[in-house]
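This follows on from our talk about sequence and fold. Can you supply me with one protein entry, sequence and fold together? Could you add the entry underneath, on a fresh line?
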Amino acid sequence: MRAIDSVLAQTVPVDEVIVVDDGSTDESAEAIRSRYGSRVAIFRQENGGVSAARNRGICEAKGEWIAFLDSDDVWLPTKIERQLEALDAVGDRFGVCFTDCVYEGNPKKKLSVFQETGFKGAPRFGALEEPAKYVLAECEPFYTQSLLVLRSLLQAPHGFDHALVLREDTDVLFRLTFRTRFCYVTEPLVRIDRNPSREVGLCNLYSMRDDRMFDSLRRLYTKWLELPEVAGSEYELPVREMLRKLYYDSAESKIHGLRMGPALREIDGLRLLGDSYASVVVTLLSRKIAKLRRNFARPGGGEKKIARVGLEQPSTIRPGDFLGSPDLETQVQNKVSNNHRIRRG
């Protein structure tokens, strides 16, 4: 209920509050109806996952702008007010506004989203240039819970992909980067519940090398390569490299499980990307040797250092300002050389 309370407590009242009951088996819908009455519209549907729920909310909404909030998260009272101020300040060419966020429920997560991604020292309001580069480098400073988006940009067929079991929000954001401009508010105006228990399912998908993870990411990257804004652009090579690494990860996982048929299908995918059978075999062997070396390496052999580049006081933020380099290909190749880290979903 606290999520709904935080929406209704906004200093600039929202036009409508929509709750999508995605096949719940408890009495939460009845409790919401009893507590809020006509102030909250409830739509029930069979369980279809987070993408189906968000798309239903988009479909039922009537306002010009739309914002999202998960049931365990909270908006601070001035969230919408500050975002409308930012949109007034930057002009009418912007269809997405996001804010900083802080975490609750996990004492290890002490930094805000902007601090985590190195997005600091920026002015109160501003424009984010080339947001697609932040998405590809997996250091985007925006969460779905902080977005304020023009509803027209999310209407079918531009909504959330039901077939993705993870990174469905990343998919929407990447596609939005080519359809509108992004602006930001540097205040942390959203509190995100990061109790470790919330991430168990997603962690299992990654740690168990679940086929659903590989299938979703394969669909994601393949779909991105088909975008006219990506094909033949500076974004194509980084996305192809992400897809190539995914095929190797998946083939390696399936070989480890003695599932040779599915492994060969992943190798066929690599062949379509231009890798020869010989190069595939050599790469898989080298990855296996590297993994064995890591397993037998002495603990404490070196300290991993991560440097973040702070911002000055620009009115417009560009990828090079906090990625440390404007070279997108270098950023993404560095990223894909490591395992995919757990992403919000």
Summary: The first strand starts at residue 18 and ends at 22. The beta strands are 18-22, 41-45, 65-67, 74-75, 94-104, 125-128, 148-150, 181-193, 316-317. The two ends are 21 Å apart (CA to CA).
